[in-house]
What we know:
By secondary structure, the protein is α+β, with helices and mostly antiparallel strands. The chain has 21 helices and 34 strands. The strands form nine sheets. A seven-stranded mixed sheet has the order 14-21-20-17-16-15-22. A hairpin with a 4-residue loop joins strand 4 and strand 5. Helix 7 runs antiparallel to helix 20, helix 14 packs across helix 15 and helix 16 packs antiparallel against helix 18. It is globular, with a radius of gyration of 29 Å. It starts with 23 loop residues before the first helix and ends in a 30-residue tail after the last helix. Keywords: Cytoplasm, Exonuclease, Hydrolase, Nuclease, RNA-binding. Its main location: cytoplasm. InterPro entries: CSD2, NA-bd_OB-fold, RNase_B_OB_dom, RNase_II/R, RNase_II/R_CS, RNase_II/RNase_R, RNase_R, RNR_Ribonuclease. Pfam families: CSD2, OB_RNB, RNB, S1. It comes from Hymenobacter antarcticus.
Amino acid sequence: MNTPENTGAPRAKREKPEPAPISQDLVxxxxxxxPTKVLAYRQLSRRLGVxxxxxxxxxxxxxxxxRKNGLITLLQNDEYRLADTDAVATALMPSSxxxxxxxxxxxxxxxxxxxxxxxxxxxxxxxxxxxxGFDYVDGDDRPERAPSNTVIGTVDLATPNFAFVVPEGTGxxxxxxxxxxxxxxxxxxxxVRVRMRSSRDxxxxxxxxxxxxxxxxxxxxxxxxxxxxxxxxxxxxxxxFDVFVPPHLLHESRNGDKxxxxxxxxxxxxxxxxxxxxxxxFGAAGGNEAEINAIMAEFGLPFEFPEEVETExxxxxxxxxxxxxxxxxxxxxxxxxxxDPADAKDFDDALSIRKLDNGNWEIGVHIxxxxxxxxxxxxxxxxxxxxxxxxxxxxxxxxxxPERLSNGLCSLRPNEDKLTFSAVFELDEAGKLYESWFGKxxxxxxxxxxxxxxQERIESKEGEYAEEIxxxxxxxxxxxxxxxxxxxxxxxxxxxxxxLDEAGKPLGVYVKERKDAHKMIEEFMLLAxxxxxxxxxxxxxxxxxxxxxxxxxDAPEPERLQTFALFAQKFGYKLKLENxxxxxxxxxxxxxxxxxxxxxxxxxxxAIRTMSKAIYTTEPLGHFGLAFxxxxxxxxxxxxxxxxxxxxxxxxxxxxGKNVPAEPVEDExxxxxxxxxxAANAERASIKFKQVEFMANEIGNTFKGVVSGLTERxxxxxxxxxxxxxxxxxxxIPGDFYxxxxxxxxxxxxxxxxxxxFGDEMMVVVKSANLLDRTIxxxxxxDRPDFVKKREAEERKQRSSEPRGxxxxxxxxxxxxxxxxxxxxxxxxx
Length: 830
């Protein structure tokens, strides 16, 4: 359902951190990644992003130590090369591995054609490479402080240079910034103890003194083999270290494979590397199966059901017993059908319709009775609760329940008797509601419609069940109009879909169009979800109310709204947000005004992200985006565990049960909210990969797009026809030097004063599409005379040979291309 539920507000950028120290390991890896190359000091400085005098001095000091230890050789002047790969490998090993590794296992210098660069070639699809992920300093000689000066919190990785630790139980406390060399290899979500060290620009800074809980010590990345040793470079750019894999833990992995590595040893010395073992090999990086499986592993998604879960599901009888039918309201004689996507296999909702003697209509919303089959205390229940949601990647579904249930027993397939839990409404043709009924039922679907087939009935008024579909469609329009009159938000996100061949390769990208058939089903599902929530809420008139699973959505924070209003004002749109009751009206008016304009997608997208994020909770706080006082999720128990929870609670209360303790239900709500967020991130990652894969076949082609994001590194362009997004680096914009004016959401030419801002239309050429990093690079179409282009190219070449610390503009300092997000790397979603 497309509603403004899962949203996150744009946030002010974090301050830009000071340049990270240049560690000895980082300098050494510059040589080990290029074992046959001669590197001069100036080349090292460019590779390592040196911008300060202190960093330059660090490099000189490290070169001196490495040369003294026999790891590099000075050739002439300031040119060096790798000297002894055996010594290098030994130096990089943690002590525990170094003691157990035989000399025969040490690596030898790989031949030139076995380097990663050579393996993947210079094709523009994969031409750009990330540097090694080290940024440690050797040791910490600061004196220990008293234990009372420590805080416990959760790690939120921001950039490869620093993280924020969110203190526990202190919502008003500032996050603590910790540089990655002082994180003790803690990862996203880990619980740590932080020693408060100082403050910088009024913000607290600290060091991790202890990792209390490691949530998931597994990393997905591409393995590089040097001799017999492996180094896994993480896919996630925020992971700030590589993982060392000794020979006996490689398990036949080959250079360039995409792997899942489990870290077995986290060293105390930040100058060493964590040691891991390859536990899954997905195959050569860049292939469809390797990359999609890697996404699944990166987000901790399951690859299969445990054997005991499959066995339990196969043992469930499909025979419906007569005594079970007798306990239910029988709808088998009433016209009933399902409307779903053409490729759907799990039909979890059906609609029934019949005209009553008083002239009104009875509309039944029938939902698969999953909890009849999935009982508390079973392996099916435990697995469903853990997964909490089905995950819809581009080319596959990772279901919450085994196929035997999701596509078989519980799926409301046509011409079969099915057990359901129903919300039945009496409505007139104007959509006015008179009566509601909730309870267990049995149905028999007469027809399975795809959305396209139902839409044909709506448009032509002809065909099987055309009258029934059109009656419900007219009602849905009126119910929807009333919902918006009460303050619902009209902003919607656009859903990107792919046409894939048998191997999963994208043949086309398009934006899913929502027509009346989609909106009709959506309105009746919204009605059922709302009325179930209201029914339980009103069962008890005094506090504490009966415990229920609610889907809540807070009103946006005033600060976020003001930020968005200032942004919209740059485009000439004024929002009056003083009256909280008029916020939805103002946003809906803006939605109407921007319709069809270049800035439509940018403003609508940012408006949605300004909203709070919808969550599951036992608190009946209402749903701002839908303008409902009470709202639940009842209509999709095949794919959402909170719907199963709502079914169980509703049945319990219908049978006269007492109030259920809220605390365990609230815990399950929090788990489901977290799993939903994780699933959404995995789905976005799979979409991004397929977009990059699709654009890899469009290298050199020209597209029209709009500016969808701006950073100091470059501007993001979203192609209009397929919503693929890539970056044009600021240093590559022709005609001038450009700088980011973040206060006014634009970049400005230093000399010509040209302004480029959000929503501007641009013609771009696809420059590269990197399957390994999931990035797309564009360059602007340049219509200037050739002699002007040639002169500028020569000037750029001359500037690129200068030390980076002496540039007089910020354009050339960025690396890489787009990586999904548009905001500063320091931003943190909260």
